[in-house]
Amino acid sequence: MAIPDYQSLMLPVLTLAAKGEIRVPEAAQIIADQLGLSDLEREEMLPSGRQRVLHNRIHWAKFYMTKAGLIDSPKRGTFVASPSGLELLASHPARIDVDTLKRIPAFENYYNHFTKGAMQSVESEVFAASSPSDITPEEQIDAAHALLTTALKADLLARVLEQSPVFFEHLIVDLLVAMGYGGSHEDAARKLGKSGDGGIDGIIDEDRLGLDRIYVQAKRYAEGSTVGRPEVQGFVGSLVGQGANKGVFVTTSVFSKQALDYARALQQRVILIDGARLTDLMVEFGVGVRASRTIEVKRLDEDFFSEDS
């Protein structure tokens, strides 16, 4: 039989996750046995040649159910059914798909935010092979790329939250150096995390000559936490104590409206980077990610066919 689409795999994946912690390769092996897939089907690769089709579709099934709160990731590389997932299974659903998940408020908010307009058509067309869309092939590529990037950023933030505070500080070093600050990685590494000041985690040169410095605070807060005005105010107080006028406060969570308004009104230049902006920058500057597939789209060269001399 053909490999099922990712929506058809949601129920089998959640059923396995209800039995205890499991990894995607283990789940793929069990599901392949249950479906009676041939060796060729088990080993079928994506066009990129970098991942098996079955593994990829299980990953997407798991990703969507995680956004719906049906699956938890207790540690790196493993997943398990959450209490909400167990409750859904107890109702003996005949199928779990995107329409099922959209009845869950958390997923509906996510889905509406990240899959609006053309992306909704492309999402089903690319991953579930549904009816043809009215959008052009180039729009399909752009929308599919946006969807993949959204999933990547969610995975990035989840992985960062699994790491230690020391790892997070090193990540900020890598990111700032990739953005052109710090002169060299060695110089930046020596300065970040060495301050010892109450509200400052490190100092990094703004340019290679060290003509100006940026003071950094890097706080790995759990998902759902909010960094309020008092934390930002404490950081600004440390800047004033150092006679500094430039600072960057990086967190894996979000800033409250009061914190954002306070930072905007400051005389000092203080940039607040939340978890969403952090993953944007990591993807843009290639920190913690690598290219998986490159597609070159060619167009007709009208100049080649022109007979004008």
In short:
Residues 6-90 form the Restriction system protein Mrr-like N-terminal domain. This protein is 50% helix and 10% strand.
Characterization of the model:
Strand 1 and strand 2 (80-81) form a beta hairpin. Residues 117-133 have low confidence and may be disordered. The strands form three sheets. A four-stranded mixed beta sheet has the order 3-4-6-8. A two-stranded antiparallel sheet has the order 1-2. The chain has a two-stranded parallel ribbon with strand order 5-7. It starts with 9 loop residues before the first helix and ends in a 24-residue tail after the last helix. It is globular, with a radius of gyration of 23 Å. With 309 residues, it is of the alpha/beta class. The chain has two domains: 10-162, no CATH class; 165-285, Trna Endonuclease, Chain: A, domain 1 (3-Layer(aba) Sandwich), CATH 3.40.1350.10. The chain has helices spanning 10-17, 24-35, 39-43, 53-67, 83-90, 98-101, 105-114, 118-128, 137-162, 165-178, 185-191, 229-242, 257-264, 275-285, and strands at 71-72, 80-81, 202-205, 213-219, 226-227, 246-251, 254-255, 269-273. The longest helix has 26 residues, at 137-162.
